[in-house]
Amino acid sequence: MTTLDTISVDITADSSRFRSELEQATRMAEGFGRSITSALEGAVLRGNSLSDVLRSLALDLSRMALKSALQPLQSGLAGFLDNALGAIGGGQGLAVTPFARGGVLDAPALFPLGSGGLGLAGEAGAEAILPLTRGADGQLGVRSNGSAGATQITFNISSPDAASFRRSETQIGAMVSRAVARGQRNL
To answer: Is residue 94 very low, low, confident or very high in pLDDT (cuts 50, 70, 90)?
Structure first.
């Protein structure tokens, strides 16, 4: 007598594309059904000849096939125009997102350049937009808002006597200097 092992496997799949294709096939089948019904109606009720019925049916099928074939081109062209109009600040229904205080682009975006060309940001992943400010020295750069607060560093020094403490003052000064330098680099 043998024993059977039972293996249970959960499979999760994104079926949205399949569902979309199935809905499109259903719409096409319904359109085909309407075309056949209309053609047969024409033959029975209006007395159309069989050749007229078949011609009408062929035209309807050709129209459906052409519409289906041109749909990806239409969608691609619409997407291109949306991006192009968005890049130049025009277009109907396109939202303008201000970045004067900074922000993050988490999807590719086109933007106009001062030279008249177009730039592309976010094409390799999320990108940060940081506003630039001019410092007192005239240099342009990113400014820290100082919201992190002051950093406090505590050194606990244990020494058997004052003489050994004086001997380690140079070492302690160097440690403080390194900590301050690290802090300045991270601003």
So the answer is: low
